[in-house]
Automatic annotation (TrEMBL):
Pfam families: Ribosomal_S14. GO terms for molecular function: structural constituent of ribosome. GO terms for cellular component: mitochondrial small ribosomal subunit. Belongs to the universal ribosomal protein uS14 family. One of its GO terms (biological process) is translation. The gene is EOG090X0MNX. The keyword Ribosomal protein applies. It comes from the Eukaryota. InterPro entries: Ribosomal_uS14 (IPR001209). This is 28S ribosomal protein S14, mitochondrial.
Length: 114
């Protein structure tokens, strides 16, 4: 019975908190609905087409989930899930980035010396 799973041990997920899970779900929806969303927006914004077709485009856009919009996606730190002060290249918050850079844990980062 040495290979049995211990039930009293905490479970570790890939997500820091529920906000990170929510953001990941929004990113998946964005990828899934992107082509359909572009088509619907093009139909809705086209002034040359008759109003009936632009209304169809508006209805198509309304049927797509709101979380599939690019403005709903938030850049978060991959370690702490902090939403502000993100260093985009590493997807880390400035605080975590600085602590990792201090100990040479990030490639391509060098301390400023003058």
């Amino acid at each position: 019975m040495t290979n049995a799973i211990k039930l009293n041990q905490p479970v570790r997920n890939n997500w820091t908190d529920w906000r990170m899970m929510k953001d990941n779900r929004r990113r998946k929806l964005l990828v899934q609905y992107a082509p359909e969303r572009v088509r619907a927006k093009a139909l809705k914004k086209n002034d040359v087409l008759p109003p009936e077709i632009t209304e169809i485009g508006a209805k198509m856009l309304a049927d797509i989930p709101r979380d599939a919009s690019l403005t709903r996606v938030r850049n978060r730190c991959a370690i702490t899930s902090r939403p502000r002060g993100i260093v985009t290249r590493w997807r880390l918050s400035r605080i975590v980035w600085r602590s990792l850079a201090d100990y040479n844990k990030l490639s391509g980062v060098q301390r400023a010396m003058w």
